[in-house]
Amino acid sequence: MKRICLFLLLFLSVFAGCQNSSDDDDPESPSGQAQDDDDDNDNNDDDNDDNNDNNDTTVDPNEGWATGYNCRAGIGFVTHYQNEKWALETLPEQTERVYLYALSFPTKTQGWAVGSVRRDDIGLPIAGLILRYENGEWLQEETPARETGWSVHDIHMLNTREGWAIGGDSATNGDLLMHYIDGAWQFVEAPALENAWHLESIHVWSDQFGHAAGYYDATYPDLRRGLMLVYDGVSWQEEELPEVAGSWTLNAVVFNDEAEGWAAGFGNEFYAPVILHYFDGAWRQEDWVGEDNTCGEFGFSASFSFIDRQNGWLVESENVAARYAQDGWHDELPNIQQIVLHASSYFNSVATISAMEMWAVGASMYTVVEPMDKTIGLILHFDKGEWKRVVLPDIDFNDDAYWELTDVAFPLAD
Q1: How many degrees, rounded to 5, is the angle at CA 366 between CA 397 and CA 314?
Q2: In CATH, which of 2.120.10.10, 2.120.10.30, 3.40.250.10, 3.20.20.70 is domain 6-20+31-411?
Q3: Fewer CB atoms near the end CB (10 Å): N or C, the chain?
Q4: Strands of the sheet with 162-169, listed across from one edge
Q5: Helix (H) or strand (E) run with residue 121 in it
Q6: pTM (2 decimals)?
């Protein structure tokens, strides 16, 4: 995110274009999915993201999932990776415009995708949308009633019986926490915090331990400050973060176990990556290994994916792609740029399969006829040291090429 870029919404609205493993029976056990933990794609975490990249078992490299949407057509979609190719899934029919930002697959046979329903491209959401995959079919989940418009930004399922999601309320400009338990979703009381705040990513390690990342001052970019909430099995509370110079956000969070975690976002006027590392019971800022960015033209999206403490990836929308190994972070962007054909490409989500394999999704922007740009989904595959740009699923939007992939997940092997 898992998720429309702010820049594109503002720009295009002026021209009236697009405005924009098997089921775990223990609810305390960590979820099994290799996917992003974000969560966000933009200032509305429309990408999402999400999630655990579990750490004790093997990810199935032969089956994966990704979400996305077409901005101009108002079509949300899910694509399924099987038999070495990506293909579209059939989703429940919708009468309004649909945007899908994130997904979470605790097992190979059951998963969830979340987003929002809107009446137009840049209007406020009507309601959050939660889809569930079971027995080879996607169904729409019942959500709790709410008088005001709202959306779901990110989701992380512990197992098939329990999970969490975050979203936003369009009337109060506040954020929402949702809990799935015993077959039903319910809103959970959020902590009383100072100022306006926004959540971008959620990751829950057990029914007694979870984190949600975001930032304060959602209305004023120059005043933003990273925010982290922690769950103790009873309630969500703010967690102390290190001092970071200037304005900054957190857009992704992931934990390898209860003792170690990572968070990432953007800082200062140049949108340089901010990396936080949790160990010995506290968050600390880490130095960035790559070059600083110079603009925020693609909005703010970040995604983590780890398979264990020594192997993981981080991607961000502002040309960030880094691989984590025993000796720390390594900048992979120069290698990716050799196979990404268009400079205006960005990442929304990453899924780590093994120490030598990963998938990343996002979009590439094509300037076709000024002032309109066309955006086409992007899928990259890193396998045994080699990068490949993957053939996209056959998506027909009536030649309305303005779509992106927002989240990616590969469940555990049986």
Answers
A1: 95
A2: 2.120.10.10
A3: C
A4: 150-157, 162-169, 174-181, 184-188
A5: none
A6: 0.85
